[in-house]
Known about the structure:
By secondary structure, the chain is α+β, with helices and mostly antiparallel strands. The chain contains 4 helices and 18 strands. GO terms for molecular function: nucleic acid binding.
Amino acid sequence: xxxxxxxxxxxxxxxxxxxxxxxxxxxxxxxxxxxxxxxxxxxxxxxxxxxxxxxxxxxxxxxxxxxxxxxxxxxxxxxxxxxxxxxxxxxxxxxxxxxxxxxxxxxxxxxxxxxxxxxxxxxxxxxxxxxxxxxxxxxxxxxxxxxxxxxxxxxxxxxxxxxxxxxxxxxxxxxxxxxxxxxxxxxxxxxxxxxxxxxxxxxxxxxxxxxxxxxxxxxxxxxxxxxxxxxxxxxxxxxxxxxxxxxxxxxxxxxxxxxxxxxxxxxxxxxxxxxxxxxxxxxxxxxxxxx
Length: 291
């Protein structure tokens, strides 16, 4: 049997060197560094190891078992990002494995960051090299559960596993598959990023729609604070009011016109601002012109 990277095999220790052990079967040998051994290894001892290529491209062995394999999927943490190349993922052995840019979105801003987690497996190239492969949509559906009606409007947390121009897909901690439309987020999340949201719809196909926007009563104080900080940063006056164009509001404040108007309403109710001729003023710095 030819030994290949990505396999978990049982081999026999044939000899010891200064820095490790040679393990083999009837046909070939691989090197097990003492740093990769779990304690002392005896001659003729049978050892179960995982095979991988070391930093010099040599087939090597480790007694550490990976979190994922060629046959299994799991979450693995991103440990490094190389612009234009891809991201490196910790699979539970000393050697980190590359997730190539060709298997990531063209837009690098939604690549995973260090510390993010991706649901993935291993794949072997034609040259025998190990790479990370992200789980496909059919794989995600195999591990997903059906939502209960009681999940509607429930808070959920999970990992982004796919991004599209119109939105993002999330696998929640409950193993629900959810879609986040671009209108239901303020910024586009990364693949592998953990986000918090709420279920806003349960669909007939067993998936859910998720919003990352706060509920109205939760987001109002945050939005009002953002507007007031902006207003005061401009010396207490801004050229926006409740009749401003929705696109201008979106560009300047990254919020919908509805959220903008609710935030203005909160500030007016608290007697912090007033509006006049297309502008909004801070009362503590300006007096109404008609007073």
